[in-house]
Amino acid sequence: MTADQTPLLSRNPADPDDIVTEVPAPGAFAAVESVQRARAAQPGWLLGGAAARSSALSAVATAVETAAGELAALAVREVGKPLAEARAEVARTAAIWRYYAQAPYEPVGAVHETAGGPGLLLTRRRPYGAAGLITPWNFPFAIPSWKAAPALATGNTVVLKPAPEATACAQRLVEIVRQAVPDGVFTLVPGGAPEGNAVLTAADVVSFTGSTAVGGAVARAATARGIPVQTETGGLNAAIVLPDADIERAAAHIAAAVAGYAGQKCTATSRVIAVGAALGPLREALAEALRALPVGDPADPVTVCGPLVSSRARDRFEAALGGVSVLAAGTAPEAPGWYAAPTVVEKVPTGHQLLTEEVFAPVAALLPADDLAHAVRISNAVPYGLVTSVHTAALEAALHGLDRLDTGMIRVNAPSTGVDFHLPFGGTKASGHGPREQGRAALDFYTSSRTYTLAP
After folding, report:
1. What is the phi/psi pair of residue 273, to 5°?
2. Each residue's pLDDT tens digit, 393-442
3. Strand, helix or coil at 392?
4. Fewer Cβ in 10 A, N or C end of the chain?
């Protein structure tokens, strides 16, 4: 490390004295050079053919499966992810790479008849070049993978700029991928804002997941350059509970969606909307379910709610509890880590932070609604629109309300958390910008459509 390089420190959220990794930030010029090397490697990666790309992605999937225990332990240590969730994330990561390993064999275009006379019309999708991926810390293996795998499958090369808090996880993932792909095809750029901005100014296509403020800046900068961009920027997600719902089951789902991984998911439940007579029973059941959730050491297999990622995150959580009435709270362990007690509050005044901002912590507001239409209005009355969960025994009621919900995803009788990686993922309003991620939508995002006219 030279004197002018700022070190990146990644600490264990459960034991802040434990430094997981310390690496120098390479700086903006080095980040741009990484993109340039990736762009130079891209033609060879594409021309290597579908079989080579498919084989490489399959090899990554196998390697992730082989290293599953190690990777899960690293996620527990570096980002405080509870062990059960870390294991599930690693398994999903392998599945993502295996899913996209088949994509290189998919058709990349179509042949059309001309409007009149001889000749042919062709459409064909082609990769952009070097894809810049800027990823968060909360899913340190899955999110980089669900961005990188489709980018690579379609013939792009990748430059990954992870959040500093997940540097070690990104390093290990890149080691695995590099064993399967040629030099320059997959590059890691550790660092913070200078490196992220540099990748943004140099890449040919950009995918970002992170805060709303940064995501907006990314979208504006990429749009000004005229390059494709997608941003996923979080949510203020609601769970709507109707009187005919299985209240105990709904409460269990909601408690897990509020407190799982200490609420550090963009799909976490932040608002619980009880419709009519559901309020009383749900109020009691949710309080009981929340108190019963295991909070503690993320390395313990039974833990559901571990520490927050940083002291700043815990300060933000504590500040968000001002001016509200606490309905129920779990117990935060007396330990060195950045722990917070899972909490449900009520009597939240209009305009309160919990109703306008994503706190990214294990806290949710319980809100009453007169009927389903009122609940939908409450759900929609926030800047975000990522996911809503609806709990009811009446499918017709759910369907009546679903189309009025202004969110990109709706989950019926299921937690708001959870991702089906083979389907489009994304939201509306401040929850994102640009095309959807994951599934076949990702293959479209990382390629441009061209139309060819072939005259005789």
Report:
1. -110, 110
2. 988 777 777 789 999 999 999 999 998 999 999 999 999 999 999 999 99
3. coil
4. C
Radius of gyration of the chain (CA): 23
pLDDT in tens, 211-265: 999 999 999 999 999 999 999 998 999 999 999 999 999 999 999 999 999 999 9
Residue position matching structure tokens 């722990």: 339
DSSP structure class, residue 425: B
DSSP conformation letters of 388-414: EEEE-S-HHHHHHHHTT--SSEEEESS
Contact 143, 209 (CB under 8 A): yes
List CB contacts of 43: < 8 A, sequence separation 6 or more.
none
Which of 232, 305, 358, 437 is flagged as catalytic?
Answer: 232
Spatial strand order in the sheet of 120-127? 109-112, 120-127, 447-454
Phi-psi region of 191 (alpha: psi -120 to 50; beta: other; left: phi over 0): left
3-state helix vs strand vs coil in the chain, percent to 5: 40, 25, 35
- For the chain, give the longest Cα–Cα distance: 79
- How far is CA 72 from each of CA 62, 89, 90, 195, rounded to the nearest angstrom? 15, 8, 6, 27
Neighbours of 395 (CB within 10 A): 10
List 266, 305, 358, 437, catalytic entry: 266
Q: Report in angstroms the alpha-carbon separations of 256 from 26, 242, 447.
A: 39, 19, 37
Indicate if 358 belongs to the active site: no
CA 387 to chain CA centroid, nearest Å: 12
Would you say 332 and 286 are in contact if contact means Cβ atoms under 8 Å apart?
Answer: no
